[in-house]
Amino acid sequence: MSPKTKEQFEEIRQRSAAGIMQAALELFAHKGYSGTSISAIAKEAGVSKGLIYNYYASKEALLEAIILGAVEMGDKSFHEGLNPDFSPKEQIHNLIEIGFAMLTKNIQYWKLITSLAFQPGVLDRFKPGILEKGIEELQHLEELFRALGKEKPKQEALFFAAFMDGLALQIMNMGELFPLAEMKAYAIEKFCLS
Amino acid sequence: MSPKTKEQFEEIRQRSAAGIMQAALELFAHKGYSGTSISAIAKEAGVSKGLIYNYYASKEALLEAIILGAVEMGDKSFHEGLNPDFSPKEQIHNLIEIGFAMLTKNIQYWKLITSLAFQPGVLDRFKPGILEKGIEELQHLEELFRALGKEKPKQEALFFAAFMDGLALQIMNMGELFPLAEMKAYAIEKFCLS
DNA sequence: GTCTATAAAAGGATAGAC
DNA sequence: GTCTATCCTTTTATAGAC
Question: C9 C1' – A39 CA distance, angstroms?
Fold first, then answer.
């Protein structure tokens, strides 16, 4: 009667845990953390409420798992663009490309992260780490813009970061209405000139 | 025994309703809509739970009152900057000044509005109106940038809007760490040139 | 006009059966 | 590994006293 190996069990566990996480991500991003109930997650994932607690100790632990995944992904993507084999101009170009790609491909993650940024108490524990990564990224940007010959690289870095953040906001809210390709080209034009 | 006139009653009502609304605004902005309970609002406002329902039919009606106030305020501020007596350059300069002033003075409103933008279902009813106002404002901006001689006024308008949105995000998250004055000067420099 | 007490519902979390 | 049933807490909302 279908004897299962350890590996098969492990795979089932993986699938269940991942399915729950995916459902939670979608709902947290869509309705906010507090606005999403465990029942809703269970329904979306097609499992029972009880099963969720088999994989995640609490609703907050589930959130934590999602956050950690998102932060890691974002950080990794950012550093992919920073290959020093390329010229500063090309690196900035890369960052814009990667940024736009992330925004379109993983919009849910950023919707969640951004919305959580507005709910202190929910992810206060992660804020120091996220802020630190942000500052670190700003410094990288500053160096790039300095190498590119911008007169005020520090301001330019903040300017760039603000633009990318605002972009995320607009894409989230305007959806398909947002002229993505046009704006990417314009951003490259704006930021890659010395 | 202190007989009250109709006007006095009305004033008391006003004060209570406004106090509740202010408390709700602060908590909604801080903890999100779903994350804020009626009890918490009552405590913050220094009144009983019951009294809140005397002035607002439901938690959502309270939110609605706040949103309407915020949208009206933002719209009014934007149009204040659009005085056609001034040159395009001066108008854009004004919009930046007003934008920065709003962000620092009424940060709570924008925190709330922005956070709600991420919680569909909560204020879906207002989205069409807000989106329409946004498009209208973009068109105004486009005209201004065209008059200023920008080569791609439409993109520049979106670029400007994205920057201002991102700015709001950064100020909300970085707080006092954000170099406000510097960035305002830099923004003026960037956008007011033909 | 305001408060206290209470009803009615929903949410997070656990225990035990299969 | 998964589900159903249940407990306990919190929440929204109402009713009635002062």
Answer: 15
